[in-house]
């Protein structure tokens, strides 16, 4: 995995430059880049704004293996409960996604709405010529918690969207647009493997990003031949290292869902290691896109903890610092107030030695062995990217968390969301 | 203990109105209200602004029993390390406090500065006629982390302040002013017990308020006759129910210190239960004052969790909600976005049943059994005080956390603190 700095400015990667025998990431493409997948995105009238709000990802086969990772929030939205249930089969033909409403905390009626949506998609796909059951359709929703969806619009949209599934790449891009909420740009990427198979992905999520997963709907597709178990392994490894380490505001959504579907349409069987690496690269790129477009972001911050006894310790401390409001407001103010970093490290549930801690901001030492370094107050943090590195001096393990600053725009956007 | 609403508007209490046989709280008085205590506050030049920055609380005896509670942050400021050490004797004659610098993360030199300050206070008091050792002097500091204190100014200030210790109440008020940082008002209160003994207290803390204690220097005094063990018991019980349940931004300072000194000057021995109740009342009032003056506060919020299996469960969930940036920004926007409360409850490390949760804002039901209540989006939260009540439906225990909203002013104040 490359560093986050490399990820953020991936334009040179898109332009090419990777050796021909290395996997290549392309951000103009998404879920419909792999063979055997169609996608579409339309405006179904779920959002009051009239913007795109319904997306479909359809697997034409010949394989239908699938895996999913879901929010660890105990309060799970109806579509999460539904999709977890259907995923026990290890098999999916389609994913229907809506923005404009989370369908969370909507009671038994909300669950019936999700079920009816899956039935409607199955029926529309069957009418279109592909015999499909509701149990083969995952459902994802995002938006305000607590309101029922306008089901008349959802049903009409489902009928329409099946006819919009053009082949080619544009369907994937349309789908990426249709799942946006407070996102300002769509997020997608495709990986082309030199062995001839591909992985595509799209994601959304701009607030509530956090510990378990970002808020976050994410659909990944591949045309490699892979079993449901292979997909599950690759997906869990990748999300643990990417979305789980993106922590914008410590909140975990009721709706977080990451799905990986395989069509096998390339006819190429894939090694677990190759699949793991490819899914990780796609998730890592999407995580960087999510960070860059987080609500109110003015700084893209990477907190790295090194010299820890274990990687878990490093991640726990990095996450504590990444969630500290006083650290995040200081970074918003481009203020090299390293004392707040030390205070945050000190409340992490990991035993540390305060006199061994050293901290640098963008490579400039600001604290050495627990006390201020010369010139620490003059370090220039006016740029967009800030790398905070914390050396504990206790061991050999390290880990990083991606986060953002806490800005006026974050407060603004989140104080007027539902009204 | 009364409700926080009662606490916030304590003016009627100050005016009197409590029955003559009940303890009476008076906010015009503080640490020098009990017999046997003198206090002073001066401008020693530690703060660049020239404002008051040095305070002294002096115990004239005949008893010198004392107890203390300190930050749970592993990164402890030099004055915390010093005061913890001297408190092992259970005895204090004086507390010297400075604002304008935390003396945290200042290495061995910073600890020597604290030690030298205690020595200087002991010498000045001895010259003044009260033989005192440095080991009888606690030291508290507050301000920016990471810088050494200007010791020439501290030493000159110590010499001066000993001569400023007038008797009477004004010294305590001066001391309360001198420990302010971003506080906008001094915080003090005194309790007069019908048995004839008194408890006084002052506190400061406006940001970094949190889990272990608020940032927070707090000195309490009493003229009741009480042993160090009695004081320790009363102080631990009171802080656990008050300062430990005030959580403005989840951060815990390197400098948090709460001290309780007894002069015994009333000659009245005190029951543990009476002392516990009095110290609790004073701490509760100071905690309400700290909340009301927290950095950037526009809403005073009480999160109450009821129907929990245990009080610990209730407090854990209330704290998780109190720290949730999305809940706090919604409240800043007077937005009854109850879905964010449910999402926050769902990530607390306590097993809950999402379908049994009910939530009310200021007594208006917004969520019943995990789904929206009629009219939930129209609840008016435009007032200053917001009571969030969460019923879990799992047991009989409850608990409350005091917090604030997350406002533009919080971001503003904390993004430009050290510069």
Automatic annotation (TrEMBL), chains A, B:
<feature type="site" description="Involved in the stabilization of negative charge on the oxyanion by the formation of the oxyanion hole">
    <location>
        <position position="142"/>
    </location>
</feature>
<dbReference type="GO" id="GO:0005737">
    <property type="term" value="C:cytoplasm"/>
</dbReference>
<feature type="binding site">
    <location>
        <position position="215"/>
    </location>
    <ligand>
        <name>substrate</name>
    </ligand>
</feature>
<dbReference type="GO" id="GO:0004358">
    <property type="term" value="F:L-glutamate N-acetyltransferase activity, acting on acetyl-L-ornithine as donor"/>
</dbReference>
<dbReference type="GO" id="GO:0006592">
    <property type="term" value="P:ornithine biosynthetic process"/>
</dbReference>
<feature type="site" description="Involved in the stabilization of negative charge on the oxyanion by the formation of the oxyanion hole">
    <location>
        <position position="143"/>
    </location>
</feature>
<keyword id="KW-0511">Multifunctional enzyme</keyword>
<dbReference type="GO" id="GO:0004042">
    <property type="term" value="F:L-glutamate N-acetyltransferase activity"/>
</dbReference>
<feature type="site" description="Cleavage; by autolysis">
    <location>
        <begin position="214"/>
        <end position="215"/>
    </location>
</feature>
<protein>
    <recommendedName>
        <fullName>Arginine biosynthesis bifunctional protein ArgJ</fullName>
        <ecNumber>2.3.1.35</ecNumber>
        <ecNumber>2.3.1.1</ecNumber>
    </recommendedName>
</protein>
<keyword id="KW-0012">Acyltransferase</keyword>
<dbReference type="InterPro" id="IPR042195">
    <property type="entry name" value="ArgJ_beta_C"/>
</dbReference>
<comment type="pathway">
    <text>Amino-acid biosynthesis; L-arginine biosynthesis; L-ornithine and N-acetyl-L-glutamate from L-glutamate and N(2)-acetyl-L-ornithine (cyclic): step 1/1.</text>
</comment>
<feature type="binding site">
    <location>
        <position position="181"/>
    </location>
    <ligand>
        <name>substrate</name>
    </ligand>
</feature>
<feature type="active site" description="Nucleophile">
    <location>
        <position position="215"/>
    </location>
</feature>
<dbReference type="GO" id="GO:0006526">
    <property type="term" value="P:L-arginine biosynthetic process"/>
</dbReference>
<keyword id="KW-0963">Cytoplasm</keyword>
<keyword id="KW-0808">Transferase</keyword>
<feature type="binding site">
    <location>
        <position position="419"/>
    </location>
    <ligand>
        <name>substrate</name>
    </ligand>
</feature>
<comment type="similarity">
    <text>Belongs to the ArgJ family.</text>
</comment>
<keyword id="KW-0068">Autocatalytic cleavage</keyword>
<dbReference type="InterPro" id="IPR016117">
    <property type="entry name" value="ArgJ-like_dom_sf"/>
</dbReference>
<feature type="binding site">
    <location>
        <position position="414"/>
    </location>
    <ligand>
        <name>substrate</name>
    </ligand>
</feature>
<dbReference type="Pfam" id="PF01960">
    <property type="entry name" value="ArgJ"/>
</dbReference>
<feature type="binding site">
    <location>
        <position position="204"/>
    </location>
    <ligand>
        <name>substrate</name>
    </ligand>
</feature>
<comment type="pathway">
    <text>Amino-acid biosynthesis; L-arginine biosynthesis; N(2)-acetyl-L-ornithine from L-glutamate: step 1/4.</text>
</comment>
<dbReference type="InterPro" id="IPR002813">
    <property type="entry name" value="Arg_biosynth_ArgJ"/>
</dbReference>
<comment type="subunit">
    <text>Heterotetramer of two alpha and two beta chains.</text>
</comment>
<comment type="function">
    <text>Catalyzes two activities which are involved in the cyclic version of arginine biosynthesis: the synthesis of N-acetylglutamate from glutamate and acetyl-CoA as the acetyl donor, and of ornithine by transacetylation between N(2)-acetylornithine and glutamate.</text>
</comment>
<keyword id="KW-0028">Amino-acid biosynthesis</keyword>
<keyword id="KW-0055">Arginine biosynthesis</keyword>
<feature type="binding site">
    <location>
        <position position="295"/>
    </location>
    <ligand>
        <name>substrate</name>
    </ligand>
</feature>
């Amino acid at each position: 995995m490359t560093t986050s700095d490399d990820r953020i400015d991936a334009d040179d990667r898109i332009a090419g430059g990777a050796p021909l025998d290395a996997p290549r990431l392309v951000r103009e493409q998404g879920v419909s880049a792999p063979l055997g997948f169609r996608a579409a995105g339309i405006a179904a009238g779920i959002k009051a704004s009239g913007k795109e709000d319904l997306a479909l990802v359809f697997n034409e086969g010949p394989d239908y293996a699938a895996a999913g990772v879901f929010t660890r929030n105990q309060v799970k939205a109806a579509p999460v409960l539904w999709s977890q249930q259907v995923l026990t089969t290890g098999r999916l033909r389609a994913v229907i996604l809506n923005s404009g409403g989370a369908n969370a905390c909507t009671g038994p009626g909300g669950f019936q709405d999700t079920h009816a949506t899956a039935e409607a998609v199955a029926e529309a796909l069957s009418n279109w010529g592909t015999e499909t059951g509701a149990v083969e359709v995952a459902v994802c929703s995002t938006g305000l918690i607590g309101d029922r969806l306008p089901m008349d619009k959802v049903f009409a949209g489902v009928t329409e969207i099946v006819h919009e599934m053009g082949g080619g790449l544009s369907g994937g891009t349309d789908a990426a647009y249709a799942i946006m909420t407070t996102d300002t740009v769509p997020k997608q990427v495709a990986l082309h493997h030199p062995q001839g198979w591909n992985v595509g992905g799209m994601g959304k999520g701009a607030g509530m990003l956090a510990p378990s997963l970002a808020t976050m709907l994410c659909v990944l597709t591949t045309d490699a031949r892979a079993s449901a178990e292979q997909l599950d392994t690759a997906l869990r490894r990748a999300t643990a290292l990417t979305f789980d380490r993106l922590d914008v505001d410590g909140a975990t959504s009721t709706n977080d869902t990451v799905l990986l579907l395989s069509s096998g349409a390339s006819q190429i069987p894939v090694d677990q290691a190759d699949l793991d690496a490819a899914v990780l690269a796609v998730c890592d790129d999407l995580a960087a896109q999510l960070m860059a477009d987080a609500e109110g972001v003015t700084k893209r911050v990477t907190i790295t903890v090194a010299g820890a006894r274990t990687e878990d310790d490093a991640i726990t401390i990095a996450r504590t610092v990444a969630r500290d409001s006083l650290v995040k407001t200081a970074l918003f103010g481009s203020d090299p107030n390293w004392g707040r970093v030390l205070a945050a490290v000190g409340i992490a549930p990991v035993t540390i030695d305060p006199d061994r801690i050293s901290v640098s901001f963008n490579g400039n030492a600001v604290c050495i062995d627990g006390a201020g370094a010369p010139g620490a107050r003059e370090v220039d943090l006016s740029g967009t990217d800030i790398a905070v590195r914390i050396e504990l001096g206790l061991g050999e393990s390290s880990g990083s968390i991606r986060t953002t600053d806490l800005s006026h725009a974050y407060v603004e956007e989140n104080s007027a969301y539902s009204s």
